[in-house]
UniProtKB/TrEMBL annotation:
Keyword Membrane in annotation: yes
Domain (ABC transporter) ranges: 2-241
InterPro entries documented for this protein: AAA+_ATPase, ABC_transporter-like_ATP-bd, ABC_transporter-like_CS, MetN_ABC, MetN_ABC_transporter-like, P-loop_NTPase
Keyword Translocase listed: yes
Taxonomic path: Bacteria, Bacillati, Bacillota, Bacilli, Bacillales
PROSITE patterns, sorted: ABC_TRANSPORTER_1 (PS00211), ABC_TRANSPORTER_2 (PS50893)
One Gene Ontology term of the molecular function aspect: ATP binding
Domain of life: Bacteria
Name of the protein described by the UniProt record: ATP-binding cassette domain-containing protein
Keywords on record: Amino-acid transport, ATP-binding, Cell membrane, Membrane, Nucleotide-binding, Translocase, Transport
PANTHER family reported for this sequence: AMINO ACID IMPORT ATP-BINDING PROTEIN, METHIONINE IMPORT ATP-BINDING PROTEIN METN
Length: 256
């Protein structure tokens, strides 16, 4: 479904070129919930963003559903992006629009007629359990509710793929559970393939069937979590699997 082949991305920074992602290859199959895990700065978000070409790689190719996105002109790429929803750590809701109008936004951009928009928005809000909040403004919502609005908005375009960039990093542990449950439900009920960036192994263990471990821009190991015996080889994967409860910054420091 998604094939990343030898992806490379270098940023020009004041301190010189920064190789955020180097030679990263990954195959995500239909129906996967695929985790990308690693410490801060490992290149997870950059790699995730190459899937819909929010970040255009300098090297390598991106295929989705057998089509090479990296070879498409921008106009065609915009159409393909409709089938790829995305949610972010800080929700990125429009604060001057209520919940209903936030979910409506991508449909308006895609010029979906108003009459078609209503049932779609209502069913997306129902899916994330927020039908009763349609008129509320983001400022009145909890972090978990905001993220569920963002999930509903991402679902509005009927995506086949949902990209999640640290979706639980701004919320407390209880709320994390409700967001993960919503993601699992849409994966199971709608068959949406999910790629999720996180630095927490407990998030991976809760919902992912596969995970790739990243370090210094490279994918160092991949695991199929349905296998009975997982034996991490790399020090970073061994560390992540051992410390799955909470990976706080001081733990990162102790690893380094
Ligand atoms: N637009 C940019 N310009 C310059 N450097 C960037 C840019 N985006 C990312 N980087 C750098 O690339 C490296 C990888 O960043 P990335 O956000 O992909 O890592 P990450 O694993 O997702 O970490 P985090 O959890 O902190 O977001 C980091 O050193 C980051 O500072």
């Amino acid at each position: 479904m998604i094939t990343l082949n030898k992806i490379g991305k270098t940023f020009a920074t004041a301190g010189g070129p920064l190789h955020a992602v180097s030679s990263a290859s990954l195959t995500v199959e239909q129906g996967d919930i695929y985790g990308l895990i690693g410490f801060s700065g490992a290149g997870k978000s950059t790699l995730l963003r190459t899937i819909n070409l929010l970040e255009r790689p300098d090297e390598g190719t991106v295929h989705v559903d057998g089509e090479e996105l990296t070879a498409l002109p921008l106009r065609e790429l915009r159409k393909r992006r409709l089938a790829i929803g995305m949610i972010f750590q800080h929700f990125n809701l429009l604060n001057n629009r209520n919940v209903y109008d936030n979910v409506s936004f991508p449909l308006e951009i895609a010029k979906v007629p108003r009459a078609e928009r209503r049932p779609r928005i209502e069913s997306c809000l129902e899916m994330v359990g927020l039908s009763d909040k349609a008129k509320a403004y983001p400022a009145k919502l909890s972090g978990g509710q905001k993220q569920r609005v963002a999930i509903a908005r991402a679902l509005a375009g009927n995506p086949k793929i949902l990209l999640c960039d640290e979706p639980t990093s701004s919320v407390d542990p209880q709320t994390t559970g409700s967001i993960l449950a919503a993601l699992q439900e849409i994966n199971r009920n709608l068959g949406i393939t999910i790629v999720i960036v996180t630095h927490e192994m407990n998030v991976v263990k809760a919902i992912c069937n596969k995970v790739a471990v990243m370090e210094h821009g490279r994918i160092v190991e991949k695991f199929d979590l349905r296998e009975k015996h997982i034996v991490p080889q790399s020090p970073i994967a061994q560390y992540l699997f051992k410390n799955e409860i909470a990976l706080e910054r001081e733990m990162e420091a102790s690893y380094a």
